[in-house]
Amino acid sequence: MVxxxxxxxxxxxxxxxxAAAPSMHNAQPWLFRYEREGGLLTLRMDPTRTMPITDxxxxxxxLGCGAALFNLRVAAAHxxxxxxxxxRPEKVAPEVLALVTFEPVAERDAxxxxxxxxxxxxxxxxxFSGETVPEPVLEGLRGAASAEGARLDFADDWRVQELxxxxxxxxxxxxxxxxxxxxxxxxxxxxEGTEFEGIPSSSLGPRRYDGRAPVRTFPGxxxxxxxxxAVFEWAPCLAVLGSSQDRPHDWLAAGQAMERVLLQATLDGxxxxxxxxxxxxxxxxxxxxxxxxxxxxxxxxxxxxxxPAVPATPRRPVEEILTVE
Length: 325
Known about the structure:
globular; about 30% helix; 4-stranded antiparallel sheet; alpha+beta
C-alpha cells in the first residue's frame, strides 16, 4: 500500500456510500476494484446490468455511475480525503469509467457537508403536497448543478405541459414496443427471487388516477388490482438537468451533477424523483430541451416537492461490487 493511502476498510465504506446512488431502474450497474499497492480505485460498468434496448448508448448507465462517483467523492471528503478522479481515461478498456486516487487534505471540501444526505436520499414515486418550493431553495439547487458543470432548468407552467406531453408520447411508444417492455419488466419484477434486482414492488408507489405529475407505469405492475390509486400534484415542480456536450465523459459529469442536486434537495427537506422515460427515445429526447435555455443536451427530468418518507430500495452487497487486490 502506498504511504498515505486509505485502508481497505475505509475504501469499502466509501464504496458502500457510492452504491447508495440512484440508477436506471435501480440496476446498480457499477463495479469497483481497489489496488492496495497503488491506492487506486477503478470504477467500471457491469456488463450484466446494461439495457441494450432502452439504453443502447449506455448514457443512462453513465448517469447512474456518475451519481455513484459523486457519492464516493462526498464520502471521501467527509473523512478528510480528496478523491482525484480521472473520468473516462484514455488507453484503458472501454468499460472503465473512472480511475480514482485519494489524498489526505487539511481542509474538507464543501461537498463533505452533503454526506448525511446519502443515507437519507430516496426516489419517491408517491404524491407530493401542493406546497410551493421556495425560490431560494430552487436557486440553491441550480447552484448545485452549476458547481458540477451542468444546468438545472425549472419549468414554468407552459413548459411543464410540454414535458408532460413528451412523457405521454414516450408511454405510448413504450406500449407498442414489446422488447422495451420486456427489458423494463426484467428490472421491475425481480429475478430469480433475489431481493436487490431492480425496483421492488414496494417502491413503485400508487397508481395515478388524477393529477399532472409524471408518474411512470411499469409493465406487469400498473394493472395490478392491489395497487392503490392516488391523486398526484396538479402543479408539479419539474426541472430538466442538461449539459453543454453529449459525450460519455459529459454523461458521467451530468450524473455527478444530478446526485449533487438530489443530495442538496434532501438536506433541504425535499422529496425527489427521476424520470428518464422520454429521454430513452431519441426522437423525444429533444422535446425535453427548453429552447430558451443555454443547455444543449437534456439528461434527466427531475421532480421536487414535499412528500411522505419512503423506504430505501435494496442495494447489492458491497462484497459483490468491490474487489480488493
